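Lecture notes, structural biology module. Today: joint structure prediction for complexes of two components.
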Amino acid sequence: MKIPHWVAGTNPRRRIVRALTVVLGAYLLLSYVLLPVRGAGISMFPTITTGDIKFVSTITYRWREPRRGDIVAVRMAGRHVVYLKRIVAMPGERMRFVKGVVHINGVALDEPYLQNQADWRSDEIALGPSEYFVVGDNRSMQMYEHDMGVVSRDRFIGPVVF
Amino acid sequence: MRVSLRPVALGIVAAALAFYGYRSLFPDDEGQIREVLDRVAAAMTVSGEDGDVGRLARIAALASDVAPDATVEGGAHPEPLTGRDAIIAAAVRVAGAIGDLQLQLVDIEVGFEAGHRQALVHLTAEAHFKAAGESGIDARELDIVFRKSGGRWLIATVLPVDTLTPVR
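The predicted structure, tokenised, for the full assembly:
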């Protein structure tokens, strides 16, 4: 494959500078703007499956608040290992599972992205001012096997963008 | 006037290498704690091809990094594991039950308390395992308290951290 002239150039020194700029730009982009994440496990099936590569925007939540339905990266101790989960309940809301369906303030939540729902049930919980409830899309698995729960806003790295 | 930057660059590289070498030979408190964590991860990383004796010897050697009265919470049992011997025995059981296990400790933050006599380490433990023909990944956020005793940093307490507060 022939490398375009405007990329390769003719001056070796400039070519090296150009290559280093591209590498540095890619490093900065993938470190500070778009965090690549590889899916592992079945809790987000069928939306995300094991081996899927997704990109998390680390800057989106600087100009807008998280929304219901966002798939978010939730950090553990840092960014090397994260949960990918969907936001289903927002700060200040009351949330519970009734026969596998999320109820927010007593009203069933429409979640068109779900395929099968097992009979999940839970006590109602009230979320605090900066608390969200996140859960995976695979509601067909056993509830006790599924990592989900209340998470504070400061644990969000950002939404999955593609 | 033309000034050559080569001696300056060489000096910076030499200083960096000297600093790295000094730190490797004489690690500070944080370096010593990270070395303990490296040993834990290496000892708990086992392959199906490893012999039982070598596997057990590596884990048993961790005893020198664990305080005699150490406690570990959040394991398979509701009650915390208490005491160095019980903790090492449990680690041996886990490694024996799982054919392949790769433990990685990442995102390590170290903070010091009580005049550098105690340290709180916050990290994520990620385990890739293969058992009964099935492979899987598990990750847990942990707080580990280290205590300095006799010039060595020893693991005193291991506590799980709930990243997501569960519902009932």
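Point to remember: Chain A touches chain B through 23 residues (CB under 8 Å).
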